[in-house]
Amino acid sequence: MPDQRSKLGRPARLSRELIVSAALESDLGTLTMRDLAARLEVSHSALYRWVADRDELFDLISEVMVERILPTTTPTAEGWRDWLARLAWAMHDEFLAVPGYAAHVARPHRHNPESFGRLRDRVIEAFRAAGATPAMAQQSWLVFGLGVVQWLGARQAPHDMGPTEPRFDLFLDVLLRGLPTRTPAEHAHP
């Protein structure tokens, strides 16, 4: 019977898809690269040939998550709010389904510029469909993105949210009624 260690470290057993799949089945809040290598039954060094570090691992995970959550339809002037609601609920379902992911995304860090750039561009497209100027569509993206991600991060954080957890449907209703953003007249700058 071959020694188990002889199987370890063979790069042919790995792919980015397998790495992401194994990571998504873990608690990302505590997952280490060594844990991931053990889960994949490869050596630590073999994993590093595919993924340079934890940041690159989260970049790969974010690519998959953004692909899962983005609606395939285009936001329209009549349906932009429903489009954003579908997106927010997809974020809710997908981000919270992976332990530690929402909490990680909510923390200040460098986000994957490609995947989160696609997300940003699509949300800005929705606000442009609603009639927002390019500057206000950008501000609306910031409010929407930060609001949803922070709510999800707080929901997934290990601390207690109190006796009554906030309802996402109520939060989302209030958020979407206030968007797209507009410059308040009393605070407008010349």
Query: Which architecture of the largest domain would the CATH scheme give at its second level?
Result: Orthogonal Bundle
Order of helices and strands: HHHHHHHHH
Q: Kindly report the oligomeric state of this protein.
A: single chain
The number of domains is 2
Strand-residue fraction?
under 5%
Q: Helical element count?
A: 9
Rg (C-alpha, Å): 20 Å
Keywords: DNA-binding, Transcription, Transcription regulation
Organism: Phytohabitans maris
Protein name: TetR family transcriptional regulator
Keywords:
single chain; 190 residues; mainly alpha; Tetracycline Repressor, domain 2; 2 domains; 9 helices; globular; disordered N terminus
Describe this structure in words.
With 190 residues, the protein is mainly alpha-helical. The protein folds into two domains: 4-51, no CATH class; 73-187, Tetracycline Repressor, domain 2, CATH 1.10.357. The protein has nine helices and no strands. It has helices at 16-24, 33-40, 44-50, 54-69, 80-97, 101-106, 113-129, 134-156, 168-177. Helix 2 packs across helix 3. It is globular and about 60 Å long. The termini are far apart. Residues 1-6 have low confidence and may be disordered.
